[in-house]
Amino acid sequence: MSEPFEAIGFKVTDEASYQALAREAHQRGTVTRVLREEGVLHGCCWSLGGGLEVWTVLYESPEGTFYADCRPAFRTRQTYQFYPWEILEFEQDGEALLTGVVRHSRREWVIALQNLTELDLKQLPRNHVTAVVSGLAYRARIVRPSRQGSLFEAGLTRRQAAENDYRVRGEILSWREIRNPLTTNHLLAFRLALGSESLEVLVNQRDLSGDPQRGQWLSAEIWLQGYLLGEQQLRASYEGVDLQIPRQHYWRSLRRGTWPQGI
């Protein structure tokens, strides 16, 4: 129960509340399955709207079926490409980690992979993969702009950290409000500038210190999670040319001297 369920508006304080949420997600969720050598993983995705989700994974083997994992999730739209990359799966625990270097960057991210049972790993490309990624905050606070710049650092300050736990600090580019329709908790999704990348971080308003304003910064401890996109999802996400972008921007890279030799 180390995951920040409060970030998506749920109070999970003990084993009983954890099991109750797992059962409800299994009853209400959409089920996908993947076969493994020694059993079957049943992934149950309960969508609450606004990108909020609860994932429950059941592991079925000849010995029986049991709840392997239950975790909070936030399906945002901000995509990243990773190369090189690898997936480490903990079969009987119902968990998987995606480790990859953000393309055009030297920064390596470790991400809790939510949609393992929605994927056919054999059909993933051998080169770069595309994923939507966001952070669920354990806690966060509004801070003044830092002279030390943005921060993206593995580990937490006051507890034992998982591989995908990070400390982040960056300028607030924008934010939006999300309401958990079941618990009525108010959540805030911040988009932060973190050097060459930006990242969306979801915070329960109860766990936020300070009032957000433009130009201020956010410091947070987060659980980094995301979803791999298959070929069909990538095609479905294409929305065409943005007509609000001036036409001359399309031609900036096509200047004299940029063509390959021999053309």
Short description:
The chain is mainly β and 263 residues long. Helices cover 8% and strands 49% of the residues. It has helices spanning 15-28, 231-237, and strands at 30-35, 40-49, 52-61, 64-74, 79-90, 95-102, 108-113, 129-143, 151-154, 165-179, 186-194, 197-204, 208-209, 217-228.
Describe the structure.
This protein is mostly beta strands. The model is unreliable at 257-263 (pLDDT under 50). It has two domains: 5-74, N-terminal domain of TfIIb; 79-237, no CATH class. Strands 5, 6, 7, 8, 9, 10, 11, 12, 13 and 14 form a ten-stranded mixed β-sheet that branches. It has helices spanning 15-28, 231-237, and strands at residues 30-35, 40-49, 52-61, 64-74, 79-90, 95-102, 108-113, 129-143, 151-154, 165-179, 186-194, 197-204, 208-209, 217-228.
- Tally of individual domains: 2
* Poorly predicted runs: 257-263
Note the main sheet: 10 strands, mixed
Tell me the radius of gyration. Answer: 20 Å
**Could you tell me the mean pLDDT?**
88
Order of helices and strands: HEEEEEEEEEEEEEEH
The assigned structural class equals: mainly beta
The geometry reads as globular
Helix and strand layout, with pairings?
Blueprint: H1 15-28, E1 30-35, E2 40-49, E3 52-61, E4 64-74, E5 79-90, E6 95-102, E7 108-113, E8 129-143, E9 151-154, E10 165-179, E11 186-194, E12 197-204, E13 208-209, E14 217-228, H2 231-237
Parallel strand pairs: 7-14, 8-12, 8-13
Antiparallel strand pairs: 1-2, 2-3, 3-4, 5-6, 5-8, 6-7, 8-14, 9-10, 10-11, 10-14, 11-12
